[in-house]
Amino acid sequence: MASLELKGVVKRYGETTVIHGVDLAVEDGEFVVFVGPSGCGKSTLLRMISGLDQVSEGDLLLGRRRVNDVSAAERGLAMVFQSYALYPHMTVYQNMAFGLENIGTPRAEIDAKVQAAAKLLRLEKLLDRRPRQLSGGQRQRVAIGRAIVREPTVFLFDEPLSNLDAELRVQMRTELTALHQRLKTTMIYVTHDQVEAMTMADKIVVLNGGRVEQIGAPLDLYNAPRNRFVAAFIGSPRMNFLSARVVDAGAGGVRVALKGAGSPALIPVRGRSDLAGSEVTLGIRPEHVELRKAGVGELGLAAKIELLEQLGATSYLYCVLPDGARLTVQVAGQIGQRPGDAVEVVLPSSLAHLFDRDEAELALERIGAAPAA
After folding, report:
1. Are residues 208 and 340 in the same domain?
2. pLDDT tens digits, residue range 124-146?
3. What is the span of the domain harbouring residue 341?
4. Eight-state DSSP code of residue 91
5. Distance from CA of residue 318 to its chain's centroid?
6. pLDDT digits 0-9 by tens, 178-226
7. If you ran DSSP here, which 8-state letter would residue 243 be given?
8. Which of 232, 264, 296 is the last residue of a domain?
9. Which pLDDT does position 88 carry in this prediction?
10. Fewer beta carbons below 10 Å: N end or C end of the chain?
């Protein structure tokens, strides 16, 4: 096992910079997930860590050793790709043993390691099969087993579940999390799926345009997003965003008014007196919106249901407000409303977020909360 540190890491392809000075510390035994939209640089960052791509600038430290010029084969890492990359003419056993055979590992040691990995991944009865005789989930377990037998200091996963169906993805997420708990090895996992990031990670790194937007534990990012990008990316369904106007701001919070709301409400975030009269963005998660009439001092809005999804245990209402803005409401259980119905909603001020448009959509810090990492 090993810790990993990136110091001002930059990647350029000719005149184009795709990774812009990334700083990151991964602790020994930590499960870290890189998440972000397609093209944000997460796979490029993983390839630099693995040694498949060179670092253009900055330092890459593995166990406090600078490895910028160390080859991929000598870094002691193992990478699992989106494609299983199994040899079709080899059995499961042969696929898992191949890498060890190439470096001259004694046959008895190879057998012991393959058998141990097969037991760990529940592949014992499949060792004589070839990849074409396996399901997608079984093939992915073989690819992971091939990495395990090498006993790497760090596991690298590049969207390993992307080719699986929805049900199998959920199962494999659980299996990978349990595997990490058993092996206690450092793992770095790349995905564009924020649900995978939230359910698997000890620490999430949110990337956008080759830059780190925020680093933190899943619930820290969910509860205290640093900016609107993180707020929108983390959470499903995504956070609602509404235009608001600041009435006044002080030590107790920021009082905002929404178009169509009955009265302004105080949002408990740290504001500045110069915000008064300015436009801001109010964010509220769908599960925090309440389907009821507003009381005094609450942000209440009239809405019309455009689309309704009832999933049994949860219902999603996709609403339009009088000014044309959209609002998603998530409620527990089943409801009697139908598309076209008028409803009243309340946006609890204690759960709302404010984003300052004059500071590149940076979130205003919630009163009583620690600053986001």
Report:
1. no
2. 999 999 999 998 889 988 998 99
3. 233-363
4. -
5. 24
6. 889 988 999 999 998 888 999 999 999 999 999 999 999 999 999 999 9
7. E
8. 232
9. 92
10. C
